[in-house]
Automatic annotation (TrEMBL), chain A:
UniProt keyword annotations, A-Z: Cell membrane, Membrane, Transmembrane, Transmembrane helix, Transport
A Pfam family of this chain: BPD_transp_1
Mode of membrane association: Multi-pass membrane protein
Similarity annotation: Belongs to the binding-protein-dependent transport system permease family.
Organism for this UniProt entry: Consotaella salsifontis
The keyword Cell membrane belongs to this UniProt entry's keyword annotation: yes
Superkingdom as given in the UniProt entry: Bacteria
Transmembrane feature ranges: 9-29, 67-90, 102-123, 135-158, 179-204, 237-260
Cellular component terms per the entry's GO annotation: plasma membrane
Protein name: Trehalose/maltose transport system permease protein
TrEMBL record, chain B:
Domain of life: Bacteria
Record keywords, A-Z: ATP-binding, Nucleotide-binding, Transport
One annotated Gene Ontology cellular component of this protein: maltose transport complex
Name of the protein: Maltose ABC transporter ATP-binding protein /trehalose ABC transporter ATP-binding protein /sucrose ABC transporter ATP-binding protein
Domain annotation ABC transporter: ranges: 4-236
Species: Consotaella salsifontis
UniProt xrefs under CDD domains: ABC_MalK_N
Amino acid sequence: MPTVIKQTGFYLLVAFIVLFSVFPFYYAILTSLKSGTALFQVDYLPTHFDFGNYADLFATGVFPKNILNSVIVATVVVVISLFLAVTAAYALSRITFRGRTLLLLTILGVSMFPQIAVLAGLFEMIRAAGLYNTLFSLMFAYMIFTLPFTVWVLTTFMRDLPVEIEEAAIVDGAAPLTIVLKVFLPLMWPALVTTGLLAFIAAWNEFLFALTFVSNNETRTVPVAIALLSGASEQEIPWGTIMAASVIVTVPLIVLVLIFQRKIISGLTAGGVKG
Amino acid sequence: MAHLKLTNIKKSYGSVKVLHDINLDIRSGEFVVFVGPSGCGKSTLLRVIAGLEDITGGTFQIDGQVVNALTPKARGVAMVFQSYALYPHMTVYDNMAFGLRLDKGSSSSEVDRRVREAAAILQIEPYLDRLPKALSGGQRQRVAIGRAITRDPKVFLFDEPLSNLDAALRVATRIEIARLHERMADTTMIYVTHDQVEAMTLADRIVVLNSGHVEQVGSPMELYNDPDNLFVARFIGSPSMNILPARIEAAGAETAVVPEGGRRIVVPVPTPSGSSSSAAHLGVRPESLELVDEGQGLFTGRVTLVESLGEVTLVYIDIGRGDEPLVAKLPGEVRLARDSTVSLSVDVSALRLFDGSGRALRGDRAREPELMRNAG
């Protein structure tokens, strides 16, 4: 086959994939900029630039609070899960103890349950702990799905770090916590950034727990807030505002990925040991 | 000052025994090299001494104090790893200062002084601000050595530090380590290698290990001239000693033996009178063989291969022992045609005799003088 056809085919495929993944978001942006009856016209190119929907969102008062709630919950979840995962990963990857594999498999197993299966039990726990209708309930609940994968990814990553570097630190007189914080942590940036971002996204977008454990508009996180946005009347679904809200909550994720993409590089351990 | 005493040291992983009753006495300031084939336990023994492996049994003392349960730092050891094991995210300076900074006691000016001192010794001052990945293999190994020096250890451990370097750099670094040992005369150094040139050139004493046992401990020349057993005889020297099955014909103050593929010869080694006609082994170093007129020598055979190395020529001679040729190392360039017949002779004092179980037969023969032993 001539190179031209190969290349054209390749770029056509790329264009198709990009279009396929970006179109829904693009259409959301288009819709968020429309108002009134224009919402119900199908346009593929931007025709209206009306920021009224965005203004409406911030005028209602509760939505900024919802964003703040989401930021708090997602950040706390990321920080706590990374801390627990790094310390757990050290134990699981570097210390031999009875039942280590079983523990790892259990951690993985926990993450396989569908959310709906644990919902009732979790609800009871949260009620008993007096966390119902607070952000703590969400932070606690989100750990259930962020911890398994952060622990797994970091354990795998830490297992691949050269043992000699750790031994050199031991000979230098470093205690386990010093080794983790001063030697391993700086080497684990790529893994930390990747798992941290995934945990953040998962917590940011979570809907079911957020809907169940919080009943108060002031305490809601954005996914639920968006779903419960209501229009002027019962019959009206405020598509314009919903799309504007969706765009707003997606932007922080994109910004985070752009900031940290430089950190998501491999080969950070190059030069430490032979290779 | 550190005098190391290992008494009946055992190490096993589950049911697998790696070290069996190791007894060693290492004097303060001595340079001891552990050699042995892969899997003989030499690295494990070093790690046991370092404190990176638990001791399964026996006691390990440094200056009379039992240190079995102490951390590497409390033992006062520093170690240079085969793979350098530098901290990749730290500059050379920070790598060397890391251990010192963990000591709450040392001030930053003290840390700085010691890092710069070590850097000066190893000539790595220009690289202090670089990351390890910007250094060559030889430079990285110097940094690793420097990191160990700054700690001013009592015991300095090297785990095959040169095996990742190319040949030229290996020689240069070897000489540097020898200099370092002179400079740090009070520091006990233990060095693991499988390279016998490193062992012979660096060591005050060599410990030959084989499958978790100590085969022999001695100065390089003792091991070369007077191996305790067949294992050491074969292991030290390159190409290794020719070992020929032999039969003792007449025991006594001198021993008459007939080696396989050779003629009867009288060796100046006494053997107990009862050992006549018993099996033994005759050891002949390739370098002690010399060409003689045909039919005159101890061995006569057909040349199968000639390897000219310039300074020496290795000649492989079929003396009727199947796949095991006799190897002779002859000085200079020797022109011999393949399939030609040669005769080789040897000074009887260079012959070594081993009994059927592989132990050296020495009788009362005085040991060779220890030419190489340092006053330690």
